[in-house]
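Module 6 notes. Inverse folding takes a fixed backbone as the condition and produces residue identities as the prediction. Think of it as a translation problem where the source language is geometry and the target language is the twenty amino acids. Below is one complete input and output pair. Work through it position by position during the lab.
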């Protein structure tokens, strides 16, 4: 009898293991992700202090934003176009969705209209390679109607930033001819962060272009873009086929102009910024917010009698109660950072949160949601 019960238990256990394994396979097939493994020795996440020389301030109004959250994994992203192929994927090491651009193709966001004189571009890049590291480039240029999107020297004129593991280059062109500026720099930033997230930030002020990789400013060229042209296209190009090479991007953001923070806060009594960024669903401030926080702290230090209320706002993703709580916690995080990192007195700052209750744009588009995720400083 004991042998019978023992045999029965073993049989039932085997069935349970089999069902678990089957369920696990089913789960893995439904939520598959790209395997992007960290190197053996990883670089710790940089904090705000590592960005102490980072003076980039993103534009005020978001005109294009895509984190690919609205796209299905495996699909080409709906807001982009290409002459090649690509797909939205998840990465095993990093949250969110990522656009995998397959080698040898041109990819561009379907933006409408002419770019303003002053604008900013930001995106997260995972530059993954094993041996060779082809270039991964981004162009800003003025289109010619009917022109192919894979033209090497495109449009009436523009500028291109090329990134590869050990080298960065920036050059301009006009009327299909390469221009006078062609700068090539040795850069180990990407090779040191292979398979890690690198934040690319670009600020355009008329002809002047500044380029940052994470906290490092690698270019500041006063006369890169040609005056008199209407720039209306941003294009990525993924280098030639190479074993083990793949670029992934996410959180691609284009915004108009840099706000005059000093005038808005001191004269108008209210400053709205979308340059203080947080991890998704979290009150943890991202280090690339340093430039915006530094500028706000400078204004408060220059005007020691001014007190402010810091108000957090979210988009409508998630439930209303959670968003209300998150917005208050984010405002409190901003207050703590301004005090602990930048020396602004706690007594000069109050906090509040409005959650999703006061949208400034419809929450029906990625751009609208990005504009609604903001922090307000109200002069008391």
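Target side of the pair, the amino acids:
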């Amino acid at each position: 009898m004991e042998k019978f019960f023992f045999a029965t238990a073993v049989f039932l256990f085997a069935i349970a293991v089999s069902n678990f394994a089957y369920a696990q396979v089913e789960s893995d097939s439904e939520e598959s992700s790209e395997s992007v493994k960290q190197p053996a020795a990883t670089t710790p996440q940089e904090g705000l202090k590592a960005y102490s020389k980072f003076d980039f301030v993103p534009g005020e109004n978001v005109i294009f934003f895509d984190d690919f959250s609205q796209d299905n994994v495996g699909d080409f992203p709906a807001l982009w176009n290409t002459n090649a192929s690509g797909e939205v994927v998840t990465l095993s090491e990093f949250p969110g969705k990522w656009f995998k651009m397959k080698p040898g193709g041109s990819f561009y966001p379907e933006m409408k209209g002419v770019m303003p004189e002053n604008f900013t571009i930001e995106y997260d890049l995972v530059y993954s390679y094993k041996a060779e590291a082809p270039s991964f480039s981004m162009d800003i240029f003025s289109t010619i109607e009917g022109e192919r999107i894979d033209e090497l020297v495109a449009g009436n004129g523009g500028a291109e930033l090329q990134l590869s593991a050990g080298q960065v280059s920036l050059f301009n062109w006009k009327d299909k001819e390469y221009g006078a500026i062609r700068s090539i720099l040795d850069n180990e930033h990407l090779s040191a962060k292979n398979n890690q997230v690198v934040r690319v930030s670009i600020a355009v002020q008329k002809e002047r272009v500044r380029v940052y990789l994470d906290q490092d400013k690698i270019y500041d060229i006063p006369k890169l873009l040609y005056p008199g042209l209407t720039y209306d296209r941003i294009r990525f190009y993924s280098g030639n086929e190479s074993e083990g090479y793949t670029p992934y991007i996410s959180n691609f953001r284009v915004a108009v102009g840099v706000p005059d923070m000093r005038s808005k806060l001191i004269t108008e009594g209210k400053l709205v910024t979308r340059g203080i960024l947080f991890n998704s669903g979290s009150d943890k401030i991202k280090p690339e917010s340093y430039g915006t926080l530094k500028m706000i702290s400078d204004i408060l230090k220059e005007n020691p009698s001014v007190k402010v209320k810091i108000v957090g706002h979210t988009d409508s993703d998630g439930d209303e109660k959670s968003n209300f709580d998150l917005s208050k916690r984010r405002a409190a995080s901003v207050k703590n950072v301004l005090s602990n990192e930048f020396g602004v007195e706690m007594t000069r700052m109050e906090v509040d949160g409005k959650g999703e209750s006061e949208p400034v744009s419809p929450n029906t588009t990625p751009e609208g949601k990005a504009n609604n995720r903001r922090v307000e400083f109200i002069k008391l």
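Reference fact for the lab report: The chain has six helices and 19 strands.
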